[in-house]
Every structure is written in C-alpha cells, then in structure tokens.
Amino acid sequence: MALLERLRRGxxxxxxxxxxxxxxxxxxxxxxxxxxxxxxxxxHAHADALMRRPPAERGRLAGLPVPIKDLTAVxxxxxxxGSPIFADFTPNASxxxxxxxxxxxxxxxxxxxxxxxxxxxxxxNEVFGATFNPYDTALSAAGSSGGAAVALATxxxxxxxxxxxxxxxxxxxxxCGIVGMRPTAGRVAQSRxxxxxxxxxxxxxxxxxxxxxxxxxxxxxxxDPRDLLSKPRPAQxxxxxxxxxxxxxxxxxxxxxGITPVDPxxxxxxxxxxxxxTENGVIVEEAHPNLAEAHAxxxxxxxxxxxxxxxxxxxxxxDQLKPEVIWNTETGLRLTxxxxxxxxxxxxxxxxxxxxxxxxxxxxxxxxxxVPPFPVGERYVKSCNGVAFDTYIDWLAIAYAITxxxxxxxxxxxxxxxxxxxxxxxxxxPPNADGRVLAGARKLxxxxxxxxLRPVEPKAPAIQS
Length: 465
Fold this sequence. Notes:
The protein is of the alpha+beta class. It has helices at 2-9, 14-32, 40-51, 96-103, 146-154, 170-176, 210-220, 238-242, 264-275, 294-317, 323-334, 337-357, 397-404, 434-448, and strands at 37-38, 65-69, 107-112, 159-164, 179-182, 202-207, 250-253, 283-286, 363-367, 383-384, 387-388, 409-416, 422-428.
C-alpha cells in the first residue's frame, strides 16, 4: 500500500518498479523458477501509455506491476498452459481479466509458472520444469498458482494473479507464507471459451498482506457481458471492508472439516492461531458443517470439467498430456448423466447445510492445507497421518470442500513448523461475503503480527544430495 501511495504522489514511476523487479528476478528467480516468461518491453510500453494519463485516471493500481498465471492469456505474450501442446502458443487477445487489470493501471511484466492445465497441487510441467519453495528449494511450492506464490515470497512481485478450482490460490499461499484468496464465483470476470457456467474455477488475488489482496481484488472485480456469471462491484470496496474493523462474534474452528486426515503439526499451528481470536472477545468453538459427500461430489464435477475442457486435446494429443490429466479427463468422459445429476444434487445439499451453519457462525476456520511443504520431486501427497489416498487430488479435500459450497475463502499465514516452514489458516465465509473474509483475516493478521513483508531469500536444502 505504501508503494501505491508513492506512485500516486509521483515519487516513483512504474518504470522504476519494473527496473527493480527485473533486477530482483535476475538475482533470485534462477533458484526458484517462479516467473519463466518475462515481457518487460511490453510492460514498459504499457507504463508509457499509463503515464500519459492524468494521475487521477491511472486506475486503482496506478502502475503497480502484476504477473499473470500461465493459464491466462496476455496479448502478444507466450502462454503455454504448462503443456508441451502449447509450448509455442502466443495469443492475439488478452483474457477479460487481464483487460480489466490493465484498465485499472496494472502493468503485466511476467507469466507465473503452473502445472499442466493447472492440474495438481505441485507446480511442475514439461515446458519450464518445477517451481521450488523458497523456504527450502528441495520442497514444493504447491499449486497450481505456485509460481505466483513464490514470486511474492521472494520479492519478484508485490501483487500477483492466480486461479483456484481445488485450492490453487490457497495451497501455494499456505506453502509459501503469503496470502491467497478465492473469491465468490463470478466476483472476477474471466473469459469463458469452453464452460460458460463453471462455478468451480475462479480467478483471484495473491499478495503478502490482506490489505494488498483486497486492493488487487478491487482492481479485478466487476461484471462483464462476456462472462454470464460475473457480478457488479459491491458498493463498499474490498479494501474498505478489510479496513472496516469488523470483528466476528462467533467463529468455528475445525482441524479437518470431518473429511480428511491432517498432519498433527498443521493442526497444532492452525488451532493455536484460531484461538488467538479470543483475545478480541471472539467465541471460538470447534465445529464444521456436514461436508461428508465432498470427495465423491468433487471427483465427479471436476472430472466433468476436465472432459469439457480437455476432451478434444485427449483425442488429438494424448501422448503429450501428463498421466493425471489423462486420468481426470477419461474419468469425466465415462460419467453418466445420472452420476452427474447425483453429484449436482449432493453439492446443492452441502451448500444448503453450510448456509444454515453460517447462521450460527460468522466465519469457519480450518487448515488451508493438510501438510507442510513436501519434497518437490513427489508429484502429489500420497498419504497423510497414516491414511493412503486413492487419487492425486484427495489430499486437497480441505480446500475443495469449500469450493463446493461456493464460499469465499482465504489462506492467511499463521505460523511455522519447527523446521521453519509456513502454514496457512483457511478463513471461510458464506457466499458473497468476500468483505467479511477480508475483514476477519486482517483482524487475525494484526493479532498474529507475523512479518510477511520482507522477501524470503531462497534457501538451499539443509542436506545436499
């Protein structure tokens, strides 16, 4: 926020910020591989155009640089989707989201790394390789917005764009000690070329603080006729909501939402952080809505989405797709209409129960992920606390259950393991209560008083192989 004020006062220019980022990227990105595609010439040209506007007309971001996840098109910039199929693809037009950000004074300077088509909670692909966690470069940054989270953590971004279907904004935020928010579906307009009414996948903001996330969400939010789900901006800005001082009266904490094993270290750290709310007179009780059908429901609806999005690619380019994408797409293509209908009914029932739950509790708190960062060479978490998982997405249940009920949610840094690895607390509110999530998160952020502003210098593995 201080940087934004300096831009508005003319103390620094967007060009100054771009130069600083380019130098920082040169110093650290080779160690973590967060931003594999750079477009500084385009960024400086956009900054020139922005500077020709009067200061009052430079938008909410006023020239702040923003990297875009490599699943989202930026006109004239390579967009691979993390797939060899699109390794040389350069779009002619930008996504609706990018258009809005640039209108609001955002300056795009890089694309952030992602797993192939965003599939899986570990950021690696056959085009650019893996992204490494700066707290220990032998470990995963999670995913699928892993490049964005690492860029923020290492100081090669101040704000970053990401997206989320099964936790892709929240998981890497937890692993990298930054803030990532999944807004209510439709809050951020996006281009919808294959699935017009998708409410599982959303675009959202990431930053090092709650206020900065709120600022970026203000720049992202708004309706657009090209997105039939998009919502108008609310009367109160998200930044104002974050700063409102609103304090919940009663919150629920759950270590596992009743549906997943969780590493005991994560439970201890998140429970301790949640209970800090009591210092402000907040009642904290252990409770959660009934989300028992989350696994079967998400597996079916996610597979349906993969069939819609990737069915044609599977037929034409099977040999270039990673096994997880093939499996998820084939699963979707085998679904019957009764199976899809049953999943949709289960989702509606879960959402109804969650709505009744939020009549009692202002917020729901739980871990954002079930484990601390794991070795980057492991494609996904195969077991936790003695429980083996059947598929590559089972370990993400604590995030995708929240996706299913349509709630906005945010991963807030809340502490560290004994090894110094970050852990995130997930803060959840009813659908459309995005401002409540931000206000509650900022209140707890102030109580916890963790230092997330200072960039992390990438740390080599403690034990060299």
